[in-house]
Amino acid sequence: MAWNKVAVIGAGLLKFGELFDKSYEQMAAEAFQAAIGSVDKGFDPAMVEAAFVSTQRGTLWGQEGIAGNTVPSAIGLAGIACTRIENACPSGSDAFRVGAMAVASGVHDVVLVIGVEKMRDKSSDEGLLARAASGHPVYTRGESAPVLFAPFATRHMHEFGTTREMLASVAVKNHYNGARDPYAHFRNEITIEDVLSAPPVCHPLGLLDCCPQTDGAAAALLAPADRAVEFTDRPVYIAGFGVATDHPYLHEKASFVGLPATTAASQRAYEMAGIGPGDIDMAEVHDCFTITEILDIEDLGFCEKGKGGVMSIEGDTALSGRLPVNTSGGLLAKGHPIGATGIAQLTECWWQLREDAGERQVRLEQGFALQHNVGGRGSGVSVVNILTRNER
Amino acid sequence: MTQPLSIRGVGAAASTLRLPAAAVNAGWGRQGGRGSSAVCAADEDSLTLGWQAAVTAIEAAGIRPDEIDGLWWGTSRPPFAEGPSQAYLASALGLRAGIGGALLAGSQHSGIEALLGAWDAVAAGSAGTVLVIASDALVPSLGSAFEGRCGAAAVALVAALDGGSASFTVRLQSTQPVLDRYRGDAEAETRDLYDSRLFREEVFVPTVTAMAERLGASPDTRWSLPDPDGRMGSSVARKITGQPPVSADIHAALGDTGAAASLLGGLPALGEPGPLAVITYAAGRCTGVLAQVDSPVPGVHQALQALSRGREASYVEVLRARRQLIAGGETVEMAVPPGGAQFVRGNPEMLGLLGARCCDCGTVNTPPSIHPVCIACGGEKLEPVALSRRGVVHTYVVNYTMPAPFEAPLPLVVVDLDDGARVMLQGVAPGEGIEIGAEVRLVLRRYTVERGVPVYGYKAEAVAAVPANPEGGD
């Protein structure tokens, strides 16, 4: 039996990209309007009782102190309850999970979860790259974001014979999907050769192995399952979720071929949904780098440990494959506005389960879609949400 | 008559880059130029070179760092003009918290002053085993004659009243108030005041020749002579013995290594029995010492080998490494300011490379300040341990994309240390020889200069990958 206590009655986002002409508040308002507009039977914004806002890094645009607090006013709902959720790269998916618990608890009926991230207001060097300067004074300066994942690529290639071409196949597939997603930051197809010949970013990863820095916002509306029919005849339910942590520093990892937080979070989510990885029809997983998607599909149980590269290059994760992964283009092509990412992934899952995904639509068999993020220093936290169109 | 000072071990280190004098001349539109000089990579300085030399000297002497009673360090240019240079070095070497000694600085004469200070302490009985470090990494005035000769290197000696294989026996000094090579307050670069011929004829040659005569060395003596410009040393040698000094090859390969030069120049003689005379001239002071070598001093061969390493660098690379050529634009500030409390907690465990061993399960947690409980078993009783400085690469990356002041390529390496601990550290750029399974050693390097403060830490260097200099000594 899936959990199914809360329904997703609406979801939406704005086109991701370098949104130099839009403020944080304008992005939030657009995403909120997109979510409202998606509710089949119409939605009165005054019904929103509480908002959970995910913004991971206000420092990226210089407003760490106010990010989150400005959202109710910006979307015309000053006065509602509002709480900011920051939980690294899974911030958006965790805001969704917390929003679901707020509804399930009976404290609130209709809840807005909204992720907003401004990553391009500052120059690239002052943005996420400046992360290289952070860290404990002892260990290890120079850790820009790719350093958190590239060591896994080096080791995965060493232990399992994973090749650069296998890594590249992830980027090629996600760009193919992104070219078919009107909300994606990048809408161009690429080839394996393009990926292999791109400039090095962090050996063994090159430029096209890495997701871009993107501005974006996404929103979802949650309501008690038994009220879903007031809003839609095609409800999607939250079947289960899980969050898990791990030691935060890379030198404390049990191995460099998997992320234990992902495995633990997914096991909790599967158990709550009463299903296993074989029941998933499509998945939106955290592909901040090509290697990350390979680790994810192994750690989520979609294939044996070590076989993620083979699964990717053989097309099993393509739109037409055995288990389509990142149909939206993923972080690699759609973009990774951190706080918005999880909610945007959930929006894609919502569209797929309602068969609204257009030329990206996958074949549904079991009626379950999985959404996953992993991140934080050394991938110390992961969140998995499972959605279903099944009534129970 | 002073008691002799017995040498139990020696170590040396040269900076990584080799800059041909001709490359400097070409940069200023001049022809020719002989020899090369050893120049610091961006992460090396007088402290890291001194550390490297001292680690090998202590190892060669067969003692533990905590058996040393005093550190005498001589360097014209301590990394902190005023600040904790000596305490940083002592901490990184694992010396006792109660260590004695002194930091001698302010001129290129300070290296030999460190030897004399340590010698006095041993003779007076206030120290048993002493560590002497002479190191320098000067920044020369651009376009000056000194620029093509300015070298960076270090030499270290472990000494005591007796028990060594060579002894210093005689010391003489002379002083005159002349202004030669100098750096003024608030100036970044060291320069020469006088016309070189004036200095050579009126000051250098008469002073050094007189000191050589006063020493009364026997005819079979090997001489280490100062050589500030690549020619004056041989002028003096011709007057004294008619032979090139024992220091000639090292000076030709490394340049004038300032406070380290005279002791470093005598290094080859510590490998063969016989007498050695070392003359230092700098800053209006001339010191001559005599030593008797009974048998090769432990560590001398490795020390000579260490000096033969290095790779040729372009003039532009050297200017960047010396921070004399700086890219425009802004740099990102480190998240942890060197004056902040987190730095105060973290710096000792970085310099000492400390871990916290779990008393219950033996797991080593690093660094201690962020691990109140064991990551393996949750044990709450942890004891500080100094980590091994050798290990094997578990995985690695090479980062090419970072904002200034970081410079690419920057290897980052996960190392399984020999004692079972695992650490992640920067690798020595460009990361030659770094691959999974490669043996590495951890070496002290300057990570950055942050808000004007040098910040030090360890970097992994492949043991097999230290390049040999085809023109080097040994």
The helix content of chain A, as a percent range, equals: 25-40%
Give the helices and strands of chain A as they follow along the chain: EHEHEHEHHHEEEEHEHHHHEE
Largest sheet properties of chain A: 9 strands, mixed
User: Approximately what portion of the residues of chain B adopt beta-strand conformation?
Assistant: 25-35%
Instruction: Label the structural class of chain A.
Output: alpha/beta
How is this structure best described in words?
The complex is a heterodimer of chains A (392) and B (474). Chain A is an alpha/beta fold and 392 residues long. Chain A has a single domain, classed as Thiolase/Chalcone synthase (Peroxisomal Thiolase, Chain A, domain 1), CATH 3.40.47.10. Chain A has 11 helices and 11 strands. In chain A, the strands form 2 sheets. Chain A has a 9-stranded mixed sheet. A two-stranded antiparallel sheet of chain A has the order 5-6. The longest helix of chain A has 16 residues. The mean pLDDT of chain A is 95. In chain B, strands 5-4-6-7-1-8-13-12-11 form a 9-stranded mixed sheet, with helices on both faces. A 5-stranded mixed barrel of chain B has the order 18-19-20-22-21. A 3-stranded mixed sheet of chain B has the order 3-2-14. In chain B, helix 5 packs parallel to helix 6. Chain B starts with a strand and ends in a 12-residue tail after the last strand. Chain B folds into 3 domains: 317 residues, Thiolase/Chalcone synthase (Peroxisomal Thiolase, Chain A, domain 1, 3-Layer(aba) Sandwich), CATH 3.40.47; 110 residues, OB fold (Dihydrolipoamide Acetyltransferase, E2P), CATH 2.40.50.840; 33 residues, no CATH class. By secondary structure, chain B is of the alpha+beta class. Chain B has 11 helices and 22 strands. At the A-B interface, helix 4 and strand 5 of A face helix 11, strand 18, strand 19 and strand 20 of B.
